[in-house]
C-alpha cells in the first residue's frame, strides 16, 4: 500500500476519534477544521493522481507475430518428440521392441506435460531460491489476470516486450516432456513400463525442474530498472544463471541432464541379454531416418523459439541450427568413412542429431562460422562418443543417449563460451541489463566464459547423477526395474503391451 493510500485509510479513524473527545478538544478540532479539510483535499488529489497514472500506464501488450511464432515453435517441439524421437528410437531397436519404445516415448511425454502444468512449471519458473522455485503457479494458478482481464505477461529478453505467460508455459512444457523421453533410449528393450514411468516422475521433480530453474530462471530485463537493484535481482535468479552461464535452448537443462540419467539407468538396469555376444541391429533404418529428419525440422522451433520473440536472435538461432546440423552430418560420414571405409545411413542420422545437440546451447549465442565449426567438431567427437567412449564406460546404453546427447551437450556448452566471443563473430554477452550493454571485444575473456560454462556442466552432471541413482534405486525397491528374462527374449511389444508393430 502506498503512503497516499495509508493516509486516506487513516483519515476517517482520526476524524472519528475527534468525536469522542471532550468539548475543549472538539472546539480545538473545529478551529483546525479548515487545515484538516485542506490536508484531506491534498491527500485525495494525490491519490487521484496516483490512480490516474496507474490507469494511464497500459498493461503489457502482446505482439501477434511473437505469439504466433511461439505457438508454432511449441508445435514444432511436440513434433520432435512425437513422432520424431519416437520413430528415431523405434527404428533403432529390434522389431519385437518397436511398440514398447513408441509407448515409452509417447506416454512419458504425456505424463510429464501433465505434471508440468500441475507443479513443474511453478517449481522451474517462479521465484524461490537459487535451486528451485516455489508454488505460486501450482495448477497454473494466476496465469489469468482477473483485474486486467487477460493472461499474465511473461518476460522475454527485450525490455518492454512480453508474451502471454500461458504460451511460455506451453513452450517450456514441450522441453520438459522431450527431455524425459530422451532418457528412454539408454535402457530400451529391457525396462518395465511401469518402472519407466515411476522413474520419470521422480527424476522430473527432483532433477529437471531444479536444473531448469538454476539455468533459466531470472527476473526478466525490466526488473533491472536501475543500478541499485541489480544485485538484488541477480540474487533472485537461478544458481547457474547467477554464474553467467549461457544456455540458449538446453545444452545443460535438456541434453546433459537427460544423458547422465540415461547413463546411470543403463548401469542400474543392466545389460541386455546377449549384449556383447549377439548383434543388436536396427530393424528399420528407414524409420530412423524419418525420425531424424522430423527432429531436424522440429529443432528449429526448439532452438529459434528459445529467443521467445520473432526477432534477430531467433533468426540467428534458426540459421545456426541449419548450418551446424548439416556440418555434423558431413563430419560424421567422413569420420565413419575413414574409420570403416563406408559411410552409413545410421551414421548420417546420428550425425544430424549430434549437430542439433551441440548447437542447442550455442544457437543464439554464436555467429554462423562458429556454428559451422561446432557442427563439424560435434560430428567427429560424437562418433568417438558412441564407439570409443562407450567401450571405455562399459555400459549398455542401447541407443547411445550419452554418446550423442551427453558428449554433444558438453561439447556445445563449452564451445559456446569460445564462439560467443565478438572477436570470433559471436554476439557477446550482456554486461549490464540496466542498459542492455554488451561486453566489448577487448573485454571479453574466452577462458573466463569457458570456465563459467564448465561450472554449469559440472553442476548439471553431479545433480542429475545423484538424483538418478536415488530415483532408480527407489523404483527398483518398489516395483523392480527390469522385465523377466523370458519376457525380454520374447520382446516387450507382446509381453508388456500385448500387441506387435508388424503383422506376420
Automatic annotation (TrEMBL):
Membrane topology: Multi-pass membrane protein
GO MF annotation, one: ammonium channel activity
Top-level taxon in the UniProt lineage: Bacteria
Main location: membrane
TM spans (from-to): 67-89, 101-119, 166-188, 195-219, 248-268, 280-301, 313-334, 346-363, 369-389, 401-419, 457-479
Gene3D superfamilies registered for this protein in UniProt: Ammonium transporter AmtB like domains (1.10.3430.10)
A Pfam family reported for this protein in Swiss-Prot or TrEMBL: Ammonium_transp
Localization of this protein: Cell membrane; Membrane
GO cellular component, as recorded: plasma membrane
All copies of domain Ammonium transporter AmtB-like, residue ranges: 69-502
Keywords: Ammonia transport, Membrane, Signal, Transmembrane, Transmembrane helix, Transport
Signal sequence annotation: 1-26
Matching InterPro entries: Ammonium/urea_transptr, Ammonium_transpt, Ammonium_transpt_CS, NH4_transpt_AmtB-like_dom
Family: Belongs to the ammonia transporter channel (TC 1.A.11.2) family.
Protein name: Ammonium transporter
Amino acid at each position: 500500500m502506498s503512503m497516499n493510500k495509508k493516509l486516506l485509510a487513516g483519515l476517517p479513524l482520526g476524524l472519528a476519534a475527534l468525536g469522542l473527545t471532550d468539548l475543549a478538544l472538539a472546539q480545538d478540532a473545529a478551529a483546525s477544521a479548515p487545515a484538516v479539510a485542506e490536508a484531506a483535499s491534498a491527500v485525495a488529489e494525490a491519490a487521484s493522481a496516483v490512480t490516474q497514472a496507474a490507469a494511464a500506464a497500459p498493461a503489457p501488450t502482446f505482439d501477434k507475430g511473437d505469439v504466433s511464432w511461439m505457438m508454432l515453435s511449441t508445435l514444432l517441439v511436440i513434433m520432435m518428440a512425437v513422432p520424431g524421437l519416437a520413430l528415431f528410437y523405434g527404428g533403432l531397436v529390434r522389431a519385437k521392441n518397436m511398440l514398447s519404445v513408441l509407448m515409452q516415448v509417447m506416454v512419458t511425454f504425456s505424463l510429464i506435460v501433465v505434471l508440468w502444468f500441475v507443479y513443474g512449471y511453478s517449481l522451474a519458473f517462479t521465484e524461490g531460491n537459487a535451486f528451485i522455485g516455489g508454488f505460486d503457479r501450482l495448477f497454473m494458478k494466476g496465469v489469468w489476470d482477473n483485474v486486467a482481464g487477460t493472461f499474465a505477461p511473461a518476460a522475454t529478453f527485450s525490455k518492454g516486450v512480453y508474451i502471454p505467460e500461458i504460451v511460455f508455459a506451453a513452450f517450456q512444457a514441450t522441453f520438459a516432456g522431450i527431455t524425459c523421453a530422451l532418457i528412454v533410449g539408454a535402457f530400451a528393450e529391457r525396462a518395465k513400463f511401469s518402472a519407466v514411468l515411476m522413474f520419470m516422475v521422480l527424476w522430473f521433480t527432483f532433477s529437471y525442474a531444479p536444473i531448469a530453474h538454476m539455468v533459466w530462471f531470472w527476473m526478466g530485463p525490466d526488473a533491472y530498472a536501475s543500478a541499485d537493484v541489480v544485485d538484488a535481482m541477480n540474487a533472485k535468479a537461478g544458481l547457474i544463471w547467477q554464474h553467467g552461464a549461457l544456455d540458449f535452448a538446453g545444452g545443460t537443462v535438456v541434453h546433459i541432464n537427460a544423458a547422465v540419467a540415461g547413463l546411470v539407468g543403463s548401469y542400474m538396469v543392466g545389460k541386455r541379454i546377449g549384449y556383447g555376444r549377439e548383434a543388436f541391429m536396427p530393424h528399420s533404418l528407414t524409420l530412423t531416418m524419418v525420425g531424424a529428419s522430423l527432429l531436424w525440422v522440429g529443432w528449429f522451433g526448439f532452438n529459434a523459439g528459445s529467443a521467445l520473440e520473432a526477432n534477430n536472435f531467433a533468426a540467428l538461432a534458426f540459421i545456426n541450427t541449419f548450418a551446424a546440423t548439416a556440418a555434423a552430418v558431413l563430419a560424421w560420414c567422413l569420420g565413419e568413412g575413414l574409420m570403416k571405409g563406408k559411410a552409413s545411413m545410421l551414421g548420417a542420422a546420428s550425425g544430424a542429431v549430434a549437430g542439433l545437440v551441440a548447437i542447442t546451447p550455442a544457437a543464439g549465442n554464436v555467429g554462423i562460422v562458429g556454428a559451422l565449426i561446432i557442427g563439424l567438431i560435434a560430428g567427429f567427437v560424437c562418433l568417438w562418443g558412441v564407439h570409443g567412449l562407450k567401450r571405455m564406460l562399459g555400459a549398455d546404453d542401447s541407443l547411445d543417449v550419452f554418446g550423442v546427447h551427453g558428449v554433444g551437450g558438453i561439447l556445445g556448452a563449452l564451445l559456446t563460451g569460445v564462439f560467443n566471443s565478438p572477436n570470433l563473430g559471436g554476439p557477446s554477452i550482456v554486461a549490464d541489463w540496466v542498459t542492455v550493454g554488451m561486453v566489448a571485444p577487448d573485454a571479453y575473456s574466452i577462458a573466463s566464459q569457458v570456465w563459467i560454462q564448465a561450472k554449469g556442466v559440472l553442476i548439471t552432471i553431479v545433480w542429475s547423477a545423484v538424483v538418478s541413482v536415488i530415483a532408480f534405486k527407489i523404483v527398483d525397491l518398489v516395483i523392480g526395474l527390469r522385465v523377466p528374462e523370458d519376457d525380454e527374449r520374447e520382446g516387450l511389444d507382446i509381453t508388456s503391451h500385448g500387441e506387435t508393430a508388424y503383422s506376420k
